[in-house]
Amino acid sequence: MDLERIQGALREAHIDGWLFYDHHHRDPIAYRILGLDQHSFVSRRWFCFIPAHGEPRKLVHRIESGKLDTVPGAKREYSSWQELEAGLASMLGGANTVAMQYSPRNAIMYVSMVDAGTVELVRALGKQVVSSADLVSQFEAVLTEAQIETHFMAGERLDRVLDATWRRLHDLIRSGEGTDEFATVQFMLEGMRREGLWTDHGPNVSAGPNSADSHYEPAPERSRRIAAGDFLLIDCWAKLAGEEGSVWYDITWTGVIGREPTGRERQIFNLVRDARDAAVARVEAAYTAGQPIAGWEADDAARQVINAGGFGPFFTHRTGHNIAVELHGNGAHLDNLETHDERLLLPNTCFSVEPGLYFPGEFGVRSEVNMITRPGRAAVTGPRQTELVRI
Question: Are 42 and 129 found together in one domain?
Fold first, then answer.
């Protein structure tokens, strides 16, 4: 735990303190920021208050009194609920504004870990509970130089796997041997293994109308044959295997097999591509000008292009998500659809830009790149698809 950094962030945000709470590992964010054992047995409630000034304060159950011993500061124990409430009132003494893993109206559900009853309890003690969302972004999404390097390394390797996949599909289709979605997934997984990459699931290979399902995943019992004439979407993500703190790389490309794209396919791809590039340009412009930009603003830039093209109802998900040690990280997402994400796209953070259009029973197009922001600049970290792949 970086106490000095946490307290500096609290003072900068004019918040009196940050209250961490957990029961049965409901809040993984707390464990990471406090540096706690994420696999420890936790059957009783604990609280840890980091004030903007002074020493941390801890409240733990007597039968699990050692749960916060790795965190500095004074410890108080409880057994009864009356002791718990009295202890909580004492540890929050002198604080008026308290940050918690809470989001008003559950607007940013990614950080909304604390149950309503616990928030009610803290409010009943006369405290103003505010969201820790912006604080969490600073500690969960901002990357070190070494972590940024792992993202670029993963990108180079995964790009090679994807290139090899397109070539193999070409060879299999041309020879008449053919293949299917799941077999292609297995080919990609083997390629990732050889490249020293790891993924938690996927990748996603979607042929024909399956590409219209934005979260389709082939399985042995559900795998479409890939044939000439098909539209194909490949979404893949990976990070360096066995390297703690490594950052993901996440991309999506689309193509057609054994033919030229139809006029409609070209139209939809070009619109999605232009929407992607509009969001990228909006972030680049803000960083070049030294202006803050929130996630929802980048989403709006992409969505305006899609809406102007007359296909707004078919763009059914956010434009992008934060990328960090977790594939869908706890920093700002590019989102003004599923949520109104007011969190800032902070320097030294990574995120996807991936607008998509989906037509059930026909096909779907998504074009996904990753960006990394730096003080004074922001840039795409890998190749940008400019036209549909021909296999």
Answer: yes
